[in-house]
Amino acid sequence: MTAEPAEEGRAAPAPGAASGGAGPGPARERAGTPSIWPLAGPTMLAFALQALVGFVSTVIVARLGSADAPEVGRNAVAAASIAGQVHFVAFAVLAAVTIGTTALVARAVGAGDWREADRVLRCSTLAAAALAAAMMAAAPFAERLVGAFGVAPEVSLLGGRYLRILLWFNVPMAVGLVLSSGLRGAGDVRLPLAIGALMNLVNVFGHWVLVFGHLGAPRLATDGSAIATGVSFLVGALIYVALWQRNVLAVERGPWLDGISRERVWRIVRIGLPTAVEQFAWQIGLFLFLRIVAGFGTEPVAAYMIGVRILSFSFVPGLGFSTAASTLVGQHLGAGDPRGASRSGWRCTLAAMGVMSVAGLSIIGLAPTVAGWFGATGADTVRLTVLFIYVLGAAQPLMAMEYALGGALRGAGDTRFPLFAILTGLFGFRLAGSALVRFVFEGGVVAVWCCLLADYLVKASLLAWRFASGRWQHVRL
């Protein structure tokens, strides 16, 4: 199964060479700031393909079960989903690098300083690879990490092996993430789309071959799903590095050690660190929330995981507009145009709200049918999946505001306030409300899920207030 936007997850034409500027390789001029749709469109397509791969991989893993033993498929889906949720902590840690990379590359490109963009990208790549390698030390504890979610022993065993395999591919995953983040900061969203599409093809083909043992390969079941995902990370990283080595990326590579310094690395990490803390806190919050849900049984857990994966298709526009907002705000500020940055942020927000609302309503209308497509088996699991889709679908406009405004603030380098908003909504309303419903009022799982609405309302309101205040325009990078 592929890494996907979590509920709940949390993240233009390439500037061409021109004469007269400074930078590695061919000289460049200041890039013109791209518009919203050329940035958001390819990014949305990339995330849509990723969500589609998540759907296909879930279906493949779910089919490990049978009519006589449906629990086999449910356990496999739960194991892979929870292992993927734990592995998302790696994405959270790497956000300390990727967010700073996007902000600094966008600011440098907006100012026409391509040499600085190159130096930032090289520093980021080395730092991310080192962080990813360090996180591989968690491999011996994989089963305990999955078991901490309170799942059955067989799910812990399967999920632990799945997580351990994913950790083997941490370094290529990190390299691909950083280089794609840097390219998006430079305004090039087409190449990440193309490479991501190829990675998805590799992932799906690997699932088909390895999960059931086609083409003479061994039948590896959930282990095959993890290997297929990891190999797709490796393929993507190799392509990025090969193209970078040949200086055909939007940000061309200078000598590896030129401009590498602790000061520049710290500058990158300082910007991204609040987002890394935010993502890490988010994972802790999701873990605690899932523990509350798990107290109602395996069916609600499966329904929650399947519902998030289904609605990941409606999250896609938010992720696209978040990327567009980050790039546009950063480039406008780099060019000395704070008004243009503000206009771009609000336009991205309105567009995200419109598109995500339509997508969410469409999925809500097809909820019973789609639940079956995504591997929901058994009457209780299907019923609960549909109810969860209704709840999270109602939050789509609020989620759109969080995605777009959060992306705009991070693109400006204002990463501390989104952290405050996330902590307030998640711990102050979702978890506190869920605990009250579950343990004090003894409510059902649907009532617990409804606490998501309060969480998203608070976050959207806080982020809108911050962006409207204009204080983010004065953040020093």
Q: How is this structure best described in words?
A:
Helix 1 (36-62) packs antiparallel against helix 10 and helix 2 runs parallel beside helix 5. This protein is mainly α and 477 residues long. The chain has 16 helices and no strands. It has one domain.
**What overall form do the CA principal axes indicate?**
globular
Question: For the report, how would you describe the main beta sheet?
Answer: none
Number of strands: 0
How large is the radius of gyration? Answer: 21 Å
Domain module count: 1
Q: Which class do the helix and strand fractions yield?
A: mainly alpha
* Helix count from the secondary structure assignment: 16
Based on the model shown, name its key terms:
single chain, 477 residues, mainly alpha, 16 helices, globular, disordered N terminus
Short description:
This protein is mainly α and 477 residues long. It is built from 16 helices and no strands.
